[in-house]
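User: Okay, second chain of the day. Same drill as before: sequence in, structure tokens out.
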Amino acid sequence: MQQEKKSNRWRLVLLLGAFSALGPLTIDMYLPSFPEITADFGTQASLVQLSLTACLIGLGLGQIVMGPLSDMHGRRRPVIISLLLYLVMSFVCAISPNIYCFIAARFIQGFAASAGIVVSRAVVRDLYSGPELTRFFSLLMLVNNLFPLIAPVAGSGVISFTTWVGVFIVLGGVGIVLAILATTGLKETLPPENRISSNFGQLLTGIRTLLRDRQFLGYALAQGIMIGGVFAYVSGTPFIYQKIYGASPQLFALLFGSNGISLIIGSQLVGRLNHVISERRFLLIGLLLSAASSFIALMVILLHGPLFALVPPLFCFVASIGITSTASFSLAMETQSHMAGSASAILGLLPFLLGAVTSPLVGIAGEYSAVPMGVIILSTSLLALLAYFGLAQQSRSARRGVLKEIGS
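Assistant: Same drill. Structure tokens below.
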């Protein structure tokens, strides 16, 4: 019985991990193709980076739509419909006649991919709470974080045999497989009696309530700002590694993918040690690690240090994301069982909106400057610390004070 329960648990982890990994796949798999796409469309690097921005905006806005929809209509239906849209838009990306059509298709592709992210997290909250929620989410992150390792390497492999178009044909194939898995393997976890009203006014009231919760907002902003910095790293490194340091697409994929290991390390530390170190302490550790490693990375960039000096602090910076995202998700979702989809949507929206702002700023000084990326990742690390201490920690201290007052 215990073995069967463990087997079912891992089956669910793999299924939800596949859905949530659609976002990283959609973002990362075409990154090694940036120079080729730029040449093929005869356009500027900034417009190709704008296609990443469009995808991030789609992923962010899609979550704020799909999260409440999943609270209203259950988890299965929104994710199945979105996956069908995703596979169609993947093929549209592949046949785009110009960069502007490509950017528009990437926006819709990102919008469709958002359902997998938000629904997988909502399902976790439907089924688990407390330390079990943290442990299961860390397992989900283990599967999810493998895809930043796999995606750039897979993308490089595809363009070794064909053009960048092949990347989007592969993504369309992934969409087909996931649509079949969602239809046959995903059970409904939100019974009708637990669904919220489809009244639009009540929906807005619920979202406003979440945004007025200073503790929830503090955790959401800390996570969102940090991941916004990661998107600057994601957008900047294809050009920094390949243009500034002369790395081949294969070496870039190896260096970029290796940081997926650091994400896995960070998230698994939280999942395995949360009975010894609290999620709040882990969150603070992650935020401090981010600030220190991003500062070192910026110093290496300003001093024109070699590639081997830049890779370690970036490795640590990405590891801090594994720590903070796992800890902050558990802390933010713990009290939101009645609106898990909407809360998951807000947690998902903020990173992608902030990423949409930071990604194009990376190229503001041209393809041969890494300074903007260094400045952005340090700035976001410091802002995330400010959000944590100014909202989440302050709100928690205020609540403790009120409880003491009542007790006396």
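The two ends are 48 Å apart (CA to CA).

User: Thanks, on to the next one.
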